[in-house]
């Protein structure tokens, strides 16, 4: 923001916020609170009409929280911003011009004065044969709900046949990547499936299921100390889950046979990829400076290096970590930094608009909490290590305090309360994966009732709502 513009009270600067996730939502919320209507126009662009509270996705997949309650509607929450449902597809900051592709219709240019780049990250995949055809990520609510329905539908399939090959294939669930997102998804879904099998599938036993987690390094949960990661491996192994450390996924055949680097091969109808993230590739379509890992280079004030009117934070930003002595250290991509950076970023924009100096971002990472299923968890916060029920309780208390808006907090607590009073809901709404199937069959053939049973679709072809969230 030029000094002249800061002083020019007749000019109403346009603040363009790219991405309405953690950073985008919190930044826009604070800006709309701190800037009067006439002071600036805030425009938020996101392909999704909502922010996703990603730490609740594993619980949404397990059915402990309603899917609608893990998202925050942008238009309702950002009622003093202009919300565009679309994606940034290019940006020339030198001309302060962004190219936007709305969900429908032709793309258009948008001029702005101040940029907030907050388009997050996407799954970091590898060119593994068969992965794109058979795998699914775990970053958005569509994927979480797809997996819930898919896992339960596999139990239905296995319980309804005596063919051992079909049963084995259906009941083998493979996950790749042992960070917190992967471990939470793996553990929560196993916990849900175990409950379902024990209560509603008399023809199946938990021992019939095979849950395999493949991790390329020698440990899981790098966010906590080694002993806590090792404890988690022991806990999951005691539940009968198969954790393969120092192992990679090599390939997946056309008929879904998974091959690992340790030489083992097995058929699996479920393949979930949670092996890390990378900055949103849309950055390549901009003139913002990026580092060797593809992240936007930032100053400690969260300004983009060499561009005082552009700001960035969250998963796609290389923000110097001033709490560490190591030269070149940057903050880790997680919600804890994202939410705090958003606050600092908004305050800095307000300060610069008022002709003041921006302040540096400073936050020492306090630790992690992870849920491993109902009443099970692992946590390390301010150096305090918790296991089992206390960790799980801390996970829930922490995240309910963090999920944006009172409305969402109340709904999540109501979900948990109802779930504790009644039995767990473990029904597959498999029709959500392909809702037009029956109608299309009827319309094409003039018949109903003779539809062949649905096959499990490869995730890449299933009709999964909201799959495009990560851009
Ligand atoms: C399953 C899971 C569990 C997690 N659990 C934890 C946890 O327990 N603790 C923790 O600290 N962190 C956790 N994280 C990480 C945390 O959610 C992220 O670090 C955080 O969301 C990053 O915020 P962000 O704003 O940078 O990105 P996001 O929140 O991902 O927001 C990016 C936004 O940009 C939008 N977008 C994408 N492309 C475009 C485009 N071209 N144009 C416009 N908008 C675009 C997206 O739709 C999205 O809304 C978890 C992540 C996952 C996936």
From TrEMBL:
Give the domain of life. Answer: Bacteria
Record region (Disordered) = 444-471
UniProt keyword terms in alphabetical order? FAD, Flavoprotein, Membrane, NAD, Oxidoreductase, Transmembrane, Transmembrane helix
Per UniProt, residues of the FAD/NAD(P)-binding domain are: 15-342
Ranges that cross the membrane = 12-29
SUPFAM superfamilies reported in the protein's UniProt record: FAD/NAD(P)-binding domain
UniProt GO MF annotations: NADH dehydrogenase activity
Asked if the Swiss-Prot or TrEMBL record annotates the protein with the keyword Transmembrane helix, the reply is: yes
Family indicated by similarity: Belongs to the NADH dehydrogenase family.
Task: State the name under which the record lists this protein.
Answer: NADH dehydrogenase
């Amino acid at each position: 923001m030029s000094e002249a513009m800061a002083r020019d009270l007749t000019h109403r600067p346009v603040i363009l916020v790219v991405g309405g996730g953690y950073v985008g939502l919190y930044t826009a919320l604070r800006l709309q609170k701190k800037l009067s209507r006439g002071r600036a126009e805030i425009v938020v662009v996101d392909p999704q009409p909502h922010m996703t509270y990603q730490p609740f996705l594993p619980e949404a997949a397990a059915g402990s929280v309603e899917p609608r309650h893990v998202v925050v509607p942008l238009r309702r929450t950002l009622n003093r911003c202009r919300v565009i449902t679309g994606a940034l597809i290019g940006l020339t900051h030198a001309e302060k011009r962004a190219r936007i592709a709305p969900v429908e219709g032709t793309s258009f240019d948008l001029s702005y004065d101040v940029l907030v780049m907050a388009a997050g990250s996407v799954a970091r995949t590898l060119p593994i044969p068969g992965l794109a055809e058979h795998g699914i990520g775990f970053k958005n609510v569509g994927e979480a709900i797809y997996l819930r329905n898919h896992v339960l539908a596999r139990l239905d399939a296995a319980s309804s046949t005596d063919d051992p090959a079909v049963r084995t294939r259906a009941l083998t669930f493979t996950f790749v990547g042992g960070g917190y997102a992967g471990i939470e998804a793996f553990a929560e879904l196993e916990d849900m499936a175990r409950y379902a099998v024990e209560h509603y599938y008399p023809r199946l036993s938990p021992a019939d299921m095979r849950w395999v987690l493949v991790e390329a390094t020698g440990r899981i949960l790098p966010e906590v100390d080694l002993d806590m990661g090792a404890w988690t491996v022991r806990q999951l192994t005691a539940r009968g889950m198969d954790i393969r450390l120092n192992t990679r996924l090599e390939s997946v055949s056309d008929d879904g046979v998974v091959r690992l680097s340790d030489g083992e091969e097995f058929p699996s109808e479920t393949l979930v990829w949670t092996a890390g993230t990378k900055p949103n590739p849309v950055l390549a379509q901009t003139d913002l400076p990026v580092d060797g890992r593809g992240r936007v280079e930032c100053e400690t004030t969260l300004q983009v290096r060499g561009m005082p009117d552009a700001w960035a934070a969250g998963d796609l930003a290389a923000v110097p970590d001033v709490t560490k002595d190591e030269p070149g250290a940057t903050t880790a991509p997680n919600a804890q930094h994202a939410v705090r950076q958003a606050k600092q970023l908004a305050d800095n924009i307000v300060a610069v608009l008022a002709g003041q100096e921006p302040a540096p971002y400073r936050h020492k990472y306090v630790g992690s909490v992870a849920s491993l299923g109902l009443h099970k968890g692992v946590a390390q916060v301010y150096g305090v290590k918790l296991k089992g029920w206390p960790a799980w309780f801390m996970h829930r208390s922490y995240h309910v305090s963090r999920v944006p808006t009172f409305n969402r907090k109340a709904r999540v607590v109501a979900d948990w309360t109802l779930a504790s009073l009644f039995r767990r809901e473990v029904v597959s709404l498999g029709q959500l994966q392909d809702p037009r199937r029956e109608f299309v069959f009827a319309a094409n053939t003039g018949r109903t009732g003779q539809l062949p049973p649905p096959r499990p679709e490869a995730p890449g072809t299933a009709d999964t709502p909201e799959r495009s969230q990560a851009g």
